[in-house]
């Protein structure tokens, strides 16, 4: 059978062998937990607790503040120490709720209680997903409740479940499919209730044959859920690339998947839906990968949201002395961290520790016009022309050349022999175009 895929892309070193055989370990909360009010695309949540308040595990501590927003819940019982600005993984300071854990694990009433999907109306399912604070856990962070309630819900014919986990080194979704596949399928069933005419397709790269097998076994007898093996290639998990690979439909930066009668959810998001709908649990934990050549014990951990990166790295045996870079997320689209004293949030996926900085191996040199960047760009752009426009501050030309279609996957930077930081330049160019459009 010919594997489905998209055009172009790259095949970077995978690095998944470091942690892929490590079963998920459940980690307990630490003494101090930090909850940023913005852990999603859209408006930050609004704190509903104040300094001195006692909170319970599973309690709402920040409510959604708008249609595109998402609430935040405490993963511990304890006392609110402060509502103040703290540094997060990207280096910025944002408003956070700081809770001192009392280690009592006292929960709100009904937390963890079982529910049957058949006993719930479609409206109740939608409300549960919205109120649980679930967002896209593949990294995008778009509120899931909004995504599952498009205006054309009756016209959505395909719900794609992203199990590709195409970023090198990451294995959290892989372990989730192996160990909690039945629960993922139950989450998909709940999502399909909101898209009555859709069939779900679970896309998994073929470098994960046991995950493909596990999900095929868990979907036996489901006439609305199937598994689609995908060619292993980066960025196979990018939303636009995944939609094209599975359906052949193309979308661009000005379109939502729903406009092509498609919706997309991550496997971890489906697991969170399962916990919310069936177990009455808001989103208060997630699975992350701790890996890289600089980690003493690469592993996959189920951690409470709000715990610091430093503490979970210590649980993984700590880092080696010769680590030169820590990254939050994957090596292609993640961000270098200047500090590990930052909280795990809904969109956190990993801590990578590297003993060599590939980006800093060679200094940037002049473009040699080899065209390699063009041969790998999954958006069919011409990066060498885009970067020239950015360097000359000609953002109208950058826009005209399709710069806003860049998905910031890093393929061009990866392949560039001149070591030009193309992706970073395009991020800057996109910011300037948005500013330009706002003024107009």
Please provide a written account of the structure.
It is globular and about 65 Å long. Strand 5 and strand 6 form a beta hairpin. The chain has a six-stranded mixed sheet. The chain has a four-stranded antiparallel sheet with strand order 2-8-7-4, with no helix packed on it. It is an alpha/beta fold and 440 residues long. 27% of the residues lie in helices and 19% in strands.
Question: Which helices and strands appear, and what pairs or packs with what?
Answer:
Layout: E1 24-26, E2 32-36, E3 46-47, E4 54-55, E5 60-63, E6 72-73, E7 78-87, E8 93-101, H1 122-131, H2 144-147, E9 158-162, H3 172-179, H4 181-193, E10 199-205, H5 209-218, E11 225-230, H6 239-247, E12 262-266, H7 267-279, E13 285-291, E14 299-304, H8 309-315, E15 325-328, E16 335-336, E17 350-354, H9 372-376, H10 383-391, H11 395-400, H12 411-415, H13 422-439
Parallel strand pairs: 1-14, 9-10, 9-12, 10-11, 13-17
Antiparallel strand pairs: 2-8, 3-5, 4-7, 5-6, 7-8, 13-14, 15-16, 15-17
